[in-house]
Amino acid sequence: MFLAIRELLFAKTRYILIGLIMVLTASLIFIISGLAQGLSADNASSIQELQADLLILTKDAEGELTKSFIPMGEAQEIVDNQGDEHASTLAIRMMNATRNNSQQQLDIAMFATEPDSMLMPKITEGVSPTNQKQVVADTTLKQEGVKLGDKLTIGEASYTVSAFTSGQRYSHTPVVFIHNQGLDQVNAIAVQGDAHVEGSFDVMTKEDALQGIPSYSQEQASLNMMIIFLYVIAAFVLAVFFYVITLQKREQFGVLKALGANNSYLIQGLMGQVVLLAVVCIALGAAITVGIGALFPSDMPFHLELVTMLKPAIIMMIVSFIGALLSLYQVTRIDPIEAIEGAAA
Amino acid sequence: MTLILDHVTKTYTDGPNRFNALDEVSLEVKSGEFIAIVGPSGSGKSTMLSIAGALLSPTSGNVLLAGENITGLSSKEITKRRLEKIGFVFQAAHLVPYLKVKDQLNIIQVLAKKRVKHGSDLLTHFGLQHRLNNYPNELSGGQRQRVAIARALMNDPQIILADEPTASLDSKRGQDVVKLLAGEIKDRNKAGIMVTHDERVLSYADRIVTIRDGKIVKD
Ligand SMILES: Nc1ncnc2c1ncn2[C@@H]1O[C@H](COP(=O)(O)OP(=O)(O)OP(=O)(O)O)[C@@H](O)[C@H]1O
Ligand SMILES: [Mg+2]
Question: Which residue, of B30, B63, B97, B109, is most buried by count of CB atoms within 10 Å of its CB?
Answer without folding.
Answer: B63
